[in-house]
Write a structure and sequence with these properties.
Helices cover 38% and strands 18% of the residues. With 375 residues, it is an alpha/beta fold. The longest helix has 20 residues, at 16-35. The structure holds nicotinamide-adenine-dinucleotide.
Length: 375
């Protein structure tokens, strides 16, 4: 990476992934133009359309190229009813996570405006925690199979694979982040009362790792209890660490606390290596091309990418601009506005300001100077 230069691989994907990626890159372009950063965004067509036309999901050697030639990767979303087995999504999205060993799925759950907070008696500032979702193991590794498929005696298995190395590194990432960012608590969540073998590994590893971080309060909640507590009182959480599937599910609930899936951002990280950024939501095919998709989650994701690449002031400017749009209802219908996807992207560009001192952001917008760098 060269200071002042940013080379990004962009894979818009399917459905609304295409719509929201266009707005995220529009905002990124505006940021770079305003700040004298030379942005080189290189687009890749990998998607359901590309797969159906060519039979290729992602070409051989693509991940090597991505990991060597780019500072970061930005992806939209994948999923198309014409590809019911999701082969292309598995090869591209899970492929990136697994092949690039992006073991941290970093998902901030932060509400930007009181109006978006769905919890009675709570305000935006009460929803401010991060989830570290293990991203390369668990039940998403594809271990399992069918027996007697298509018969009345059919059997299907799906195995949950956890390794000591995998659990330890995600737990360490969560604690390191808590230390770096002045967060006081790390909660590990599993289902060790029912899933005893992997649960035992997670329990032992988490509490062993916790001993190296005496200043951080380490505790445990079963995943069902965690979901209940997220709704009952989100203020109790600073950092949550959990496995691949539980993190997937809990962060959709987290997105609801932020104002919906259209508001949620994520980074797929391997500290020190090329990382990949994508909004939390999927391809929502019924909204594709209609102008109804909220691009703010994708734009906030571009903000996470900026922060990860060391452009913290620029990332904060992006978040402030999105928060201002939400406050002024300058967004899509899901956040109470009347704008289209593209108009919402324009609205963010119009509100980008780089002169606000970080400490003077309006209440409900930037409350901490957290960075995802090395998260
Ligand atoms: N990371 C990914 O690429 C990813 C993640 C989840 C789902 N998927 C795939 O996406 C497809 C659709 O899945 P789904 O319908 O379960 O989930 P989804 O996230 O695509 O949409 C669920 C609902 O959330 C709302 N929503 C989501 N994003 C929004 C946005 N930006 N603006 C406004 N509203 C938004 C819509 O009401 C939508 O119907 C499936 O093929 C699924 O497998 C992909």
């Amino acid at each position: 990476m060269f200071p002042g230069r940013m080379r990004i691989a962009v894979v818009p994907g399917d459905g609304i992934g295409v719509d929201v990626t266009a707005e995220a890159i529009k905002v990124l372009d505006r940021v770079c133009e305003s700040r004298g950063i030379d942005l080189d965004a290189v687009y890749f067509p990998w998607s359901a359309d590309h797969y159906l036309q060519t039979g290729e999901t992602i070409p051989p050697g693509a991940f090597d190229e991505l990991s060597r030639g780019y500072d970061a990767i930005f992806m939209g979303a994948f999923g198309d009813p014409r590809v019911p087995d999701m082969k292309h999504a598995a090869d591209i999205l899970l492929g990136a996570r697994f092949r690039l060993d992006l073991y941290v799925n970093f998902r901030p759950v932060r509400c930007l405006d009181d109006r978006l907070c769905p919890l009675k008696g709570f305000s935006a500032e009460d929803v401010d925690f991060v989830v570290f979702r293990e991203n390369t193991e668990g039940s998403y590794v594809g271990a399992g199979g069918h027996l007697k498929k298509g018969t009345p005696d059919e059997v299907a298995t799906q195995e949950d694979v956890s390794t000591r190395k995998g659990v330890e590194r995600i737990c360490r990432a969560a604690f390191d982040y808590a230390v770096r960012r002045g967060r006081r608590r790390v909660v590990m969540s599993d289902k060790s009362n029912a899933m005893r073998f992997v649960g035992d590994l997670w329990q032992r590893t988490f509490f062993e790792v916790a001993k190296d971080y005496p200043g951080i309060e380490a505790s445990h909640l079963y995943i069902d209890a965690l979901c209940m507590q997220m709704v009952k009182d989100p203020r109790q959480f600073d950092v949550i660490v959990t496995n691949n599937m539980f993190g997937d599910i809990a962060t959709d609930l987290g997105a609801a606390l932020q104002g919906g899936l259209g508001m949620a951002a994520s980074g797929n990280l391997h500290p020190g290596r090329v990382s990949m950024f994508e909004p939390v939501h999927g391809s929502a095919p019924k909204y594709a091309g209609t102008g109804k998709a909220n691009p703010f989650g994708a734009i906030l994701t571009a903000g996470l990418m900026l922060e990860h690449l060391g452009y913290e002031a620029e990332a904060q400017a992006v978040e402030r601009a999105v928060a201002a749009c939400v406050r002024e209802r300058a967004g899509t219908a899901d956040v109470g506005g009347t704008l289209t996807t593209a108009e919402s992207g324009n609205a963010v560009c119009e509100r980008l300001r780089f002169d606000d001192p970080a400490g003077e952001a309006p209440a409900g917008t930037i409350r901490s100077k957290e960075s995802v760098e090395n998260a």
